[in-house]
Amino acid sequence: MSILHSIGSTPLIEIPSLSRDTGCKIMLKCEQLNPGGSIKDRAAKSMILKAIARGDLKPGMTIVEGTAGNTGIGLAIVGRSLGYEVLICMPNNQAKEKERLIEFYGAQLKLIPPCPFSDPNHFYHTARRIHEEQPDKYWWANQFENLDNHLAHFETTGPELWRQTNGQIDHLVSVAGSGGTLAGCSKFLKSKNPQLKVHLIDPDGSGLYNYIKIGDFKSSGSSITEGIGIMRLVANFKEAQIDEALNFNDQALVDLAWKLRQQDGIVLGSSGALNVLGAYELAKKIGPGQTIVTFWCDTGERSLSKLYNPDFLTSKGLKIPE
Fold first, then answer.
1. Quick check: 210 and 216 in contact, CB under 8 A?
2. Is residue 80 within 8 Å of 158, Cβ to Cβ?
3. On the CB side of 265, how many CA atoms lie within 13 Å of its CA?
4. CATH number for the 3-33+156-313 domain, one of 1.25.40.10, 3.40.630.30, 3.40.605.10, 3.40.50.1100?
5. Domain topology for 40-140
6. If exposure means fewest CB atoms within 10 Å of the residue's CB, which of 25, 64, 204, 292 is most exposed?
7. DSSP characters for 218-257?
8. First CA to last CA across the chain, in angstroms?
9. Is the CB of residue 198 less than 8 Å from the CB of residue 243?
10. Going along the chain, which residue ranges are E strands?
11. What are the pLDDT digits (tens) for 190-207?
12. pTM score, two decimals?
């Protein structure tokens, strides 16, 4: 047994206060219990193992990826456990907790000033360029376009949810970054129950909500969330089978995150808070008697400097919940 065997098979719990409030069963998949503290461990494991099996990732090569943090932590854990060096390109405006964890788990960290995706210095293009300049030395994980990402969830996360609910799941709710979680889970669960509804949750500043609604990447505002919401159509998101999209602002997710920490002892990161907010608002909209499943994406500790920091929230014009 190695650390790889501890990735996946996470518990599914109910959120007592929100279930009582709505009459729906609101369930939370505890992906923060993966060894790297996030759901991205699954994608990291899948992408690396499948690349090794194909011969794309060879002994002595270095894994390189551009990420907002969690995928980098997962790649560091999986890569190092298999003897690979890991280089992570990451924007320098993400939570400092993620920076420290990437280096703590043994990866090299290259911080990139934030810039639009069209800029060749964007962290995604930086990782791609490192690979293209030395393809024999660097294997690029390419989580957005690498379909082994969504296969991680089609092969593991989706089947786990089906077993844990005994097939009694009515709605799946999820944010999307690369789209791997939403794509893999929606494809598997809808193969089991075509009547199941899938809901994309999108923050301000992302274009996915409008893409689902009107077919165009338009956005307004911005968000304190990290690693979710994008302004382009990527291969993994293309695989998602989505019925509805919902959009929420930062104040709503801050209020809910602080409420759950107080009432239920559940400390969510920003993406998990947005997930639960979407599930909660959906439950109020559809009425009682439904089972709604969403994801506790990562540990709340890596949001200490932002989501649970009154000074940071105030600087962004957000109110501190009472």
1. yes
2. no
3. 2
4. 3.40.50.1100
5. Rossmann fold (3.40.50)
6. 204
7. ---S--S--S---SS--HHHHT---SEEEEE-HHHHHHHH
8. 46
9. yes
10. 12-14, 25-30, 62-66, 85-91, 108-112, 138-140, 171-174, 197-203, 244-248, 291-296
11. 999 999 999 999 999 999
12. 0.96
Distance CA 91, CA 234 (A): 19
Whole-number Å distance between alpha carbons of 224 and 249 = 10
Residue showing tokens 């969330």: 225
Helix (H, G, I), strand (E, B) or coil at 181: helix
The alpha carbons of the chain give a radius of gyration, in whole angstroms, of 19
296, 273 Cβ separation under 8 angstroms? no
Identical fold for domains 3-33+156-313 and 40-140, yes or no, is yes
**Which are the contacts of 194, defined by CB distance < 8 A and separation ≥ 6?**
none
Cα 97 to chain centroid distance, Å, stands at 16
Closest to 97 measured CA to CA, from 272, 320, 298: 298
pLDDT one-digit tens code per residue, 28-60: 999 999 999 999 999 999 999 999 999 999 999
